[in-house]
Amino acid sequence: MSETPAFPLAPAPFAGDSREVDAGACFDWLHQGWAMFLANPGIWIGASILLLVILMAISIVPLFGQIAAHLLIPVFGAGMVQICKRLADGGQPEISDLFAGFRHNAGQLVMVGLFFALAVFSIAFLAFLLVSGGILGGTVTGRVAGFGIAFGGVMLAGLLVLMLSIPVIMATWYAPFLVFLHDMAPLDAMKASFAAGYKNWLAMVIFGIFLVVALFFAMLPLGLGMVLLLPVFSGAVYASYRDIFVGV
């Protein structure tokens, strides 16, 4: 005889279902990101400066600092998500919200960071092997032919980095949202993030182009533009998460 289920029934866990949106939606995401920044620029600027200082301080340590920074990116990313969520819910965010990821699902967020770090360093290592192999082959072969071999190695390395970076970015783009806000397991969150990116590849490509261009200009005045870029794109990514994922 089957047991009578207890009431009220527990809600089904969030599965990370996503939908396809129009490619032009990315412009609305950027508009929402700017509006979210204007809602409380003081908190955003303070949190962004604090985040940049922390990451720079960590990265000063050779090798281990770089690894630690990559591991903590999803954790701090969850803090930016928390600021976005408070603003979207009509609440009052605090700079301390930047550390919300350390208080909730920190271990799972670090696992996302671990995957990201391993992928990034593996891609960099493969690129180094291709470039160094091309330069060595060019040195042995001679001047004209050697330059062609070396240049070919650099181009191949760049193409490999680009091709391998795309699935890594897709898998980790929304993973901090899903782990932090919905308690999804890291692997499930990365699968759902990849699926969402795959469904909306055109919108994400356009969004990514805007990010790269904005990043270039943000870095020109001694990187000071990052203080504005971080909040606006954090808000835009949050808007895209609300637009793409079903039931959030």
Q: Could you characterize what this model shows?
A:
The protein is an all-alpha fold and 248 residues long. The protein is built from ten helices and no strands. It has one domain (25-244). Helix 7 (175-182) crosses helix 8 (186-199).
Q: What layout of secondary structure does this protein have?
A:
Elements: H1 25-39, H2 41-59, H3 64-88, H4 100-103, H5 106-141, H6 143-173, H7 175-182, H8 186-199, H9 201-219, H10 226-244
Give the H and E element order: HHHHHHHHHH
Cα-based radius of gyration, to the nearest Å: 21 Å
Helix percentage range: over 70%
Distance between the termini: 37 Å
User: Helices and strands: which structural class?
Assistant: mainly alpha
What portion of residues belong to β-strands? under 5%
Low-confidence stretches: none
Mean pLDDT comes to 87
The biggest sheet, with number of strands, parallel, antiparallel or mixed sense and barrel status, is: none
Number of domains: 1
Quaternary structure type: single chain
Categorize the overall geometry: globular
Number of strands: 0
Q: Helical segment tally? A: 10
Task: Give me some keywords for this one.
globular, mainly alpha, 10 helices, 248 residues
